[in-house]
Write a structure and sequence with these properties.
CATH topology of the largest domain: Farnesyl Diphosphate Synthase
Number of helices: 16
Distance between the termini: 23 Å
CATH class of the largest domain: Mainly Alpha
Number of domains: 2
Number of strands: 0
Shape: globular
Largest sheet: none
CATH superfamily of the largest domain: Farnesyl Diphosphate Synthase
Strand content: under 5%
Structural class: mainly alpha
Oligomer: single chain
CATH architecture of the largest domain: Orthogonal Bundle
């Protein structure tokens, strides 16, 4: 199937094929819910989504892998190297990094703005030094680069039936909703990394601070104040999902089932948080396989029907051979095994 996807997308260069296949493997291994939803796209669309996921995942691993023993300065240097390779590739120079090679090719094919990637890298750098956020506005500045731009990167791949700028705010909101959901699910794991991705002022309104969260994590005990604060934040994230929802109907018909499936599966994580009475400091909830199947199978039917009645979305812009990165197969492909806060999903 992976080779079929590459052929459908018009990716025939062997080096680029290897780069895209590596990104696909990253998505399949780490982003289970996301990968399942991606299967509902047309074969021609999937390689680009895998490339965008793979690049985000790679940067995330530089920041969040706890087992590599790198200092903050060393991680910052690696992020600088990654961004330099990206910008060089976008400028048309050869690229030896396989994940960057694939994302550069995708950016050229779908005419993605450079700022969507530089904003993302800026948020990755924040993770090296920022450990908490005083207000929701402070967190929103981080989420702009770490999540909203992901929705905007994917939007041209999905295609729209309205002008792209009309659908863009909804795509950004969906990226934000997914990441805020991850923050709520991963409170305990983020504490282990020394971070809190919940606005301190909103926690304080319920009598919660970092020390109380750390005490709950350390002792394995719950606290009613924490549960009330998390219930408030779950309600706020549901409002972000509501802002995002009108955008699904704005997508090309062949893309709607994929996004609707991801929308409901990620929203299901909030249901699971509620089901455990918001006790997520000491456990990590997950959407069951049965629920995944119950959501994904009807989505598959809708996706196949849309392909038969609507045809494919527009083909991406072809990349001239002179702009295609070379030598990607020579770069080391391993990504360290870690939980991966942002782009791993159950």
């Amino acid at each position: 199937m992976s080779r079929t996807e590459l052929r459908a997308a018009g990716i025939t260069d062997p080096t680029l094929q290897a780069a895209y296949l590596r990104c696909r493997a990253l998505n399949a291994h780490y982003g289970r819910t996301y990968f399942l939803a991606t299967r509902l796209l047309t074969p021609a669309q999937r390689p680009a989504v895998h490339a965008l996921y793979g690049f985000a995942r790679w940067a995330d691993e530089i920041v969040d892998d706890l087992g590599n023993g790198l200092s903050v300065e060393q991680k910052a240097a690696r992020l600088d190297e990654l961004e330099a390779a990206l910008l060089a590739g976008l400028a048309g120079r050869p690229c030896a990094h396989p994940v960057v090679a694939a994302v550069v090719d995708t950016a050229r094919r779908y005419e993605l703005e450079r700022e969507l990637f530089t904003d993302f890298m800026a948020s990755m750098r924040m993770d090296l030094t920022v450990t908490d956020y005083a207000t929701a506005a402070d967190l929103a500045r981080y989420v702009r680069g770490s999540a909203q731009v992901i929705g905007l990167q994917v939007l041209p791949v999905l295609g729209t039936v309205v002008p792209r700028e009309v659908a863009a705010p909804h795509a950004a909101a969906l990226g934000e909703a997914f990441q805020l959901t991850n923050f709520l699910r991963d409170v305990g794991e983020d504490l282990d990394r020394g971070r809190v991705y919940l606005p301190a002022d909103e926690l304080a309104a319920f009598g919660v601070d970092r020390e109380l969260l750390a005490w709950c994590r350390r002792t394995g005990r719950g606290d009613v104040r924490v549960r009330r604060a998390l219930a408030h934040l779950v309600a706020r994230v549901r409002a972000v999902y509501r802002r995002a929802h009108p955008g699904i109907a704005m997508l090309a018909p062949v893309s709607r089932a994929c996004v609707a499936t991801a929308y409901h599966l990620y929203g299901g994580i909030l249901d699971e948080i509620e089901a455990v009475d918001y006790d997520v400091v000491n456990r990590r909830v997950a959407v069951s396989r049965a629920r995944r199947a119950a959501v994904a199978l009807p989505g598959l039917v809708r996706a196949l029907t849309a392909r038969l009645t609507s045809g494919d979305v527009r083909r991406p812009v072809a990349v001239p051979p002179s702009h295609r990165p070379a030598g990607a197969a020579d770069h080391r492909l391993d990504v360290p095994e870690s939980s991966g806060r942002r782009y791993t999903s159950e």
